[in-house]
Design brief:
Residues 14-54 are annotated as: Disordered. The chain has 140 residues and is mostly helical. It is built from 10 helices and no strands. The protein has 2 domains: 1-38, no CATH class; 48-139, no CATH class. Helix 2 crosses helix 3 (24-38), helix 6 crosses helix 7 and helix 8 (99-107) packs across helix 10 (126-139).
Length: 140
């Protein structure tokens, strides 16, 4: 969320105009809710550094997802997305192949087992690969 805090009001307004009609009020509402979320006990526990969350979970992906869901408005899907993306910089979480990625892999005729799917690319490319698979589903 650091990028959201750093954005000026003009940046937020421009993003709303680019998003289209009806989106700007949602962006304003989101902007007002940020201070409440930052003050949540889960946010204080990691002091703005999510690596502490990873350390508290001892690098266990299931524990990381459970701790992430202690944040307001972060559910199983948000935790899956976070872990899917963060495996780029937290190699200990690899392979993060969630249900969404498995479903797209199945449609594409690729393996659905996490290790077999991860073996198709170099470890450092796994996050990009899973993101590309999810984008494939959005193009349909």
């Amino acid at each position: 969320m650091a990028y959201a805090r750093a954005a000026s009001r003009l940046d937020v307004a421009a993003a709303g105009r680019r998003a289209g009609p009806g989106r700007l009020p949602a962006l304003r509402r989101e902007h007002r809710e940020l201070p409440d979320r930052r003050g949540h006990p889960a946010a204080g526990a990691v002091s703005g550094d999510l690596r502490r969350l990873r350390d508290e979970a001892d690098g266990d992906p299931a524990a990381v997802k459970k701790l992430l869901q202690e944040f307001p408005r972060i559910g199983p899907t948000g935790a899956d997305i976070f872990c899917r993306e963060v495996q780029q910089v937290w190699p200990g979480l690899r392979p993060q192949i969630d249900a969404k990625v498995r479903a797209v892999a199945r449609k594409a005729g690729l393996p659905t087992n996490a290790d077999d799917l991860a073996a198709l690319v170099a470890g450092d490319d796994l996050a990009r690969f899973t993101a590309a698979l999810v984008r494939l589903d959005h193009e349909d």
